[in-house]
Amino acid sequence: MIERTYTDEITSESDGIATTIAGHVHELRDIGGLIFVILRDRKGLLQVVFKEDDDPALFEQATELNYEDIVKIRGTAAATEQAHRGVELVPDKLTLLSGAHTPLPMDVAKDTDANLGTRLDKRYVDVRAPETRAVFALRSTLLTAMREWFVAKDFEEVDTPALSAAGAEGGADLFPVVYYDREAFLSQSPQLYKQMLVAAGFDRLFEVGHAFRAEDFATSRHVSEISMFDVELGYIESHHDVMDVQEESLRYTLERVVDDAASELDLLDVELIVPTDDFPRISFEEAQTILREEYDHRPDDQTDLDTRGEKLLGKYFAERGHPAIFVVGYPDEKFYYRQDVPGDAIASRKFDLLYRGQELSSGGQREHDLDRLTKTMEQQGVDPADFEFYLDAFRYGVPPHGGYGLGIDRLVQQVADLDNIKEAILFPRDPDRLTP
Ligand code: ATP
Ligand code: MG
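^ thats the input. predicted complex w/ magnesium ion below
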């Protein structure tokens, strides 16, 4: 490894210490006889001052530098009021490790005015900007925290296949792929596999994986390849057990983000409010009543909340101190949800979590009875024969179970307060974008 110290380790207390730093030339100012370089590495920024009078040859070398060149600089730390961190580096050796072409496709040091398309085309330059980089440091913190909660609560992490013979979420949104001599599909959700694993005895599991949706969207909250945090648990009494898990894990995750990603939130100018209340659990009918009576909003589709409906509900509950709510009992259900069973006190066991006015996850109790499951499929026009690999697992004993799938990209978008979900993804995919 190239020997170097990260900039954040160099403070005013490092005064007089010889050290080497390496990274990008973030800023460059030549004021005649003096060149100020701000060097940027993964951890921060540090000012380096080249003085012509002190070392003419070294100064000459510095005049050749360009924005975003990668350099290694050896020198001595000097405490000074002049530098914004109270310390700078007095250089004695400069090595160019890799040069950057000029002009750059966008500004890295200043707020870029490049549009999102250009930024994504040149993502490897775009994410150098500290504000953009902060999104991904925050994302990493968030995922680590969420994983930790589940591990601490005795959940096991699993991996299910991305290639499958049938989709869990319906036909239209599947990406077909050539699989040897037949057709296969990219996974839309690990749903069926999570359930098969519950049948196999994994009764507290989670998976962090990718799901693929061939949706033709033009929204700021959809992408074609999504990161999902999926959870499934067995031996539940109802979907409320699943909501309890989601509520606790989300609260913990957000608390950890507030603590562990404080500097990133600061850079992004976000004040993250962690819901401390019990998340309200309102019925789908109550949601519709609020929309009708408070906002005169009557969506055409009576089986789902539309984008505006979600936003208005978000506003309504935010004003009452609840950034997150569950809407329970959607009439529009996929075959794997437990349907209304005669004699069953609870009609629908499906829920969505809305966080800050946007759907963040869908979940519920699943059907574990093979006959009922098959009947629901038939009613919904799904051919059970196509799902034999899944249905077979229900012949050998499956405990009552439920779970949910949470969109990680959407959560990061909400937490970092980003206009577009693509800003929360390093290399997003949409109908027009397959590179870089
Ligand atoms: P929506 O109605 O918002 O399109 P959905 O109900 O089709 O979402 P689900 O199948 O319930 O989505 O997927 C679970 C979660 O995965 C969603 O709540 C969301 O957070 C995320 N998600 C689903 N589809 C997308 C997508 N195309 N882009 C980004 N996130 C998605
Ligand atoms: Mg959903």
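The mean pLDDT is 94.
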